[in-house]
Amino acid sequence: MASDSYNRPVRILITGANGQVGRELVSQAGADTFFEVVGLTRRQLDITHEQDIARRLDEYRPDYVINCAAFNRADAAEKQRQHCFRLNAEAVQRLGRACAERNIPLLHLSTDYVFDGHYASGYSENDAVRPLGAYGESKWQGEELLRRTHPRHIILRVSWVFSGGGHNFLIRSLEQARRDTELAAVDDRRGCPTAAADVARVLVAILKQLSCGADAWGTYHYCGAEVTTRYAFCEAIIATASQYEALKVERLVPVSSKDFPTEAERPATSVLKCKKLLSTFGIRQRPWRNELVDVIRHHYERF
Ligand SMILES: NC(=O)c1ccc[n+]([C@@H]2O[C@H](COP(=O)([O-])OP(=O)(O)OC[C@H]3O[C@@H](n4cnc5c(N)ncnc54)[C@H](OP(=O)(O)O)[C@@H]3O)[C@@H](O)[C@H]2O)c1
């Protein structure tokens, strides 16, 4: 940050501001006087357009850019490979280059899907990647292009992001539980659900420390505490939502991922180890079960 900027809030520009993490970040950072927030939706800044990026960066002159824009649908990515790579890889490189040219640090989100899921004990930042599908591959390529383009970056890999809106496992499970008496969920895929609000909390904490001079660029992992399965996560969603609404579902059936074919192969165990984030920034994992209670309460308060 320039020396004349110490007496004013830290200006952050958030791309993909209408997504799960984008919305939470705009809301949390926006409520904090430490920050001045510019949240841009896809309509306001399409990150696949190089000229739009340059125009917005020069218009707002942010101290930091946080990229929450992505093509996130793993199955759709198999059929829309080109679009997926254009957004998750090429656009990230363009954004990185534009930020580097203006000396603006870039915080970027990535995913557990860069791993193949064969390490039952979980993955550290230095473990070898081997994405199983187009989505994971495009996110890995985006990471690598950013590393080469802009040294002052943070890549935060997160997993199983959920919130009370948008497209995610929680919303899909709730919709099905309202419609059907029986619901099936995979019980041989393990991971850590992470509330979008919790990801936003972590980004805010990182941004504050960077703004205070922390020189800690690089790649980090974050996910909610407690490893679980899709089945157990779904069970927790239904149990919590049942306190607010009489759901139609009567039975939750555990199924093997083999009996639940999807377009994209998914990692069997995508647990992210979060020690580096703790030792560098002092940021602890929060239990996803607590976050889930808050998310579902807010979800019902809104409707
Ligand atoms: N969701 C997960 O389970 C998960 C897991 C691991 C990692 N992540 C990573 O976490 C990050 C945030 O995920 P999320 O769940 O918040 O995603 P999300 O809800 O799908 O939000 C992505 C946002 O990007 C916007 N977008 C799409 N194309 C764009 C473009 N060309 N220019 C600008 N914005 C564009 C979308 O706009 P519209 O609203 O107009 O579509 C959407 O608002 C992503 O990097 C993702 O890869 C997510």
TrEMBL record:
Cofactor note: Binds 1 Mg(2+) ion per monomer.
Pathway as given in its UniProt record: Carbohydrate biosynthesis; dTDP-L-rhamnose biosynthesis
Domain named RmlD-like substrate binding: residues: 11-298
Protein name per UniProt: dTDP-4-dehydrorhamnose reductase
UniProt-listed InterPro entries: dTDP_dehydrorham_reduct (IPR005913), NAD(P)-bd_dom_sf (IPR036291), RmlD-like-bd (IPR029903)
Source species taxonomy: Bacteria, Pseudomonadati, Pseudomonadota, Gammaproteobacteria, Oceanospirillales
Family according to the record: Belongs to the dTDP-4-dehydrorhamnose reductase family.
Substrates-to-products reaction catalysed: dTDP-beta-L-rhamnose + NADP(+) = dTDP-4-dehydro-beta-L-rhamnose + NADPH + H(+)
Coiled-coil intervals: none
Top-rank taxon, per record: Bacteria
PANTHER family: DTDP-4-DEHYDRORHAMNOSE REDUCTASE, METHIONINE ADENOSYLTRANSFERASE 2 SUBUNIT BETA
Signal sequence interval, chain numbering: none
SUPFAM superfamilies: NAD(P)-binding Rossmann-fold domains (SSF51735)
Keyword Chaperone attributed: no
